[in-house]
Specification:
By secondary structure, the protein is α/β, with parallel strands linked by helices. 39% of the residues lie in helices and 15% in strands. The structure holds phosphoric acid mono(formamide)ester. GO terms for molecular function: amino acid binding; ornithine carbamoyltransferase activity.
Length: 330
Amino acid sequence: MRHATGISDLGVEGLEKVLAQAIQWKQGPHPKHLVDKILGMVFFNPSLRTRASFEACMARGGGSSIVLEVGNGVWKLEDRAGAVMDGDRAEHIREAAPVLSRYVDVLAVRTFAGNTDDAEDHKDPVMNGFRNFATVPTLSMESAREHPCQGLADLMTARETFGTTKGLPVTLSWAPHIKPLPKAVPNSFLLTAAAAGCEVRVAHPKGFELQPEVQAQAEALAKEAGGSVAFTQDLDEAVKDSRVVYAKAWGPATGGPLGPEAVKAFPAWMTSPEIMAKAAADAIFMHCLPVRRNVEVADGVLDGPWSRVVDEAENRFHVQRALLQWLLEA
Ligand code: CP
């Protein structure tokens, strides 16, 4: 049985297969590949694109979906092994995951990072709880560690624009925010771009390092795919000649020198037309959305010729139906 809770589930081969299928299906009529299939979606956190695009995948493919919002008409769920459940969490994942598996063909979960302990987030306890106790394929709709569907949509967008991602110089740029955000999206962009063979540059102020294990995983994927990964605190140097500038806010490395308020301390890192002008002449701008305008990214970039943020959101639909196919064909 396949799962898709992180890029390591696909590997370089699976990634290439899903991207190729997504690009092919985007050109034609909607395939009816999900007839009689049900996707269960469990949301611990809000969403616009993820929920709408997965519901669209199931409806267009001839299947259907069940959406559960934990704590909103659905029992709050416990994930800790051995927990004494005398609080407000009335049901354990140990029961919830196998029960839902009796109703659906794939179980998708959104569960954000606690964002106070990178090492704990790296263990991805809720997602792995579902993965361990479900009896159908599990799929991440963003967990504490990764957002694989976003990474796939990002790389599909780059590949559509430039024809190939092999050796493509791409910059993942840290961006300011009003609060420290999780690291799942930057992790997934880094890992997916590395697995797609890009020349990946990650730029951030000192103190915003991504988890060392994620960096090491990206380096291994890049080696396998013929790309490269580099980390820098020099944004100008990172964006120079870059074909893709990908902005994303994330919180400081926990246990590092910076506190959570530091996310407001680097306004010069907001992606601006001046920064885009330092990239390649044909550079595109990407962001996973939602985006805080004029905090993370200037209006001039989002409304300018570089922006592919809406195409990128559309591509969530295309990669997700290819990913569902990959999960179900096993
Ligand atoms: N990019 C993304 O996952 O969007 P939502 O949070 O709206 O689902």
